[in-house]
Amino acid sequence: MDASFRDRLARLRREAPAKSASDALREASVSNAEDTREQAHDVDAIASGSTPTHAPSASEASARDAGLREQRTSEQRTHDAAASTASALNGPALDPRTAADPTSPPELPAWWKSRAQRTLQAAPLAPAGQRTLGAPCDLREAHTPRGAFAVREVRFPLEQRHGLESLERVLDVRAELFLLLTGDERLREFDPRRALFLDIETTGLSGGAGTKAFLVGLGWIEAREFVLWQGFLRGPEEEAALLLEVAERIEGAQALVTFFGKTFDRHRLEDKMRVHGVRPPFKDRAHLDLYHPLRALYRPALADARLATLERVLCGLVREDDLSGAYAPEAWYDFLAGRPHRLERVFAHNRDDVLSLATLCAHLGGLELAPAAAVSSAAPTQLLEWARLRGLARALAQRKRWSECAVVAQAARALAADEHAPELEALVELALRRSRSRRG
Predict the structure, then answer these.
(1) CA dist 126 to 326, 342, 350, 424, Å?
(2) pLDDT per residue over 34-48, tens digit each?
(3) Cα–Cα nearest to 246, from 208, 207, 285, 209
(4) How far is Cα 36 from Cα 50, in angstroms, rounded to an integer?
(5) What is the mean pLDDT of residues 173-188?
(6) Residue 93: enclosing H or E segment and its boundaries?
(7) Span 271-291, mean pLDDT?
């Protein structure tokens, strides 16, 4: 589409945000066509034989004819663009002559239309916020045999709260729950004092040599403090040095704790370590990926299983003025180019991610297998308790702990909505039958 059409479409979106994209396209097309007709008024008058306001010369008439052809071509392109977009969103108009033709292409699926509709919406502007120039504050230089990089280290007392939970609760986790909910035998001996909490910020979601983990956040417990260590790349040339330090710290930990790290964080680091000749330390390391057990427990009761949702519902943490990780690459590239950047907010986002790993680990490792003595009558609380009991009952069934499974499944059945009752009744019946056969 030409520039004038795009400008009109953008203006219509600002003035009438409630209108659909197809309506906006149609109005912009009409407006463009009207302007075209106004501009060609004199030429049309000449062509129709009416009296023009002045007698044009031969050169003027030729120029106007060329302008008319160009304007009509532009109008046709505008019309075609609007028709193409409307066709993509609403399906092509059926020609009566071909409607019954079985070889004609089928209507576009609903999911494609929905994606096209979202694509047409204006891209959201990056959130406003203070930008700074130069390197982030409180950095020190660290050195490895592969070179130097920057580090920020902050220490929090274990009594400090993150949301409604204190960090020291992670000391009370029961490793047997991690084994129950993940089935990973390596977590049987999980010790929070020897664990490393990991979260990274990267220049993209895909793997490969072009994606860089420019900020690596690590957390661990030291005496009565939670240490937050954030390794930062001041330039791409420091990547090998940072990765070597991260690999050595993971190598010295008994277990790794992440959120979606088995799918994302581990593989982004592992890929780049291999590129730089650093031996990846993940293969023999116990790895507690909190995403999978928390999703299995609570996803039926929540809109999604994102970190922000789980930390808000389970830990009472509501982030204020948080910069989404989607803007992290922009902040780093601005820094590299010497432009004002928002890296301080990226550091803060990474800090909160690492602290949330500790509190969510404490929540998961502190669950009770027995039903709660009293459940609030509030619908959200009952829904969460039902989801928790259902998830625990399913995990107990997978480990063939039938007696406990029967008790927990019965408690979940008492809180279940009608549509979930048959599943839990079947699970109770199975657990009781297997439990009796074992005793017999």
Answers:
(1) 10, 11, 18, 46
(2) 444 444 444 344 334
(3) 285
(4) 19
(5) 96
(6) none
(7) 96
Tokens matching residue 342:
């928002």
What whole-number distance in Å separates Cα of residue 84 and Cα of residue 45? 32
Share in percent of the chain as helix, strand, coil (round to 5): 55, 15, 30
Amino acid at 122: A
* DSSP letter for each residue of 376-390: -SSHHHHHHHHHHHH
Q: Which residues, including other chains, have CB under 8 Å from residue 303's CB and lie 6 or more apart?
A: 309
Specify the residue for token string 């004092």. Answer: 193
Closest CA to 357 of 253, 232, 243, 221: 221
Q: Which pLDDT tens digit goes with each residue over 181-198?
A: 999 999 999 999 999 999
Q: Work out the average pLDDT over 105-114.
A: 64
Look-up of token digits 């490895």: 144
> With pLDDT > 90 as the criterion, what percentage of the chain qualifies?
63
pLDDT score for 70:
55
Which two structure tokens, joined as six digits, stand for 31? 């407006």
Q: Specify burial of residue 302 (Cβ count, 10 A radius: 0-12, 13-18, 19+).
A: buried
Across all residues in the chain, what is the average pLDDT? 82
More confident residue, 232 or 6: 232
For residues 40 and 136, which has the higher predicted lDDT (pLDDT)? 136
d(CA 30, CA 332): 43
CB 171 within 8 A of CB 180: no
Separation CA 351–CA 197 (nearest Å) = 11
Q: Give Cβ neighbours of residue 15 (< 8 Å, ≥ 6 apart).
A: none
DSSP 341: B
Instruction: Please write the tens of the pLDDT for every residue from 57-102.
Output: 555 555 555 555 555 555 555 555 445 444 444 444 444 444 445 4
Distance CA 70, CA 221 (A): 72
Q: How far is CA 104 from CA 62, 92, 93, 107, 111, in A?
A: 44, 11, 12, 9, 20
Side chain identity at residue 172, one-letter code: D
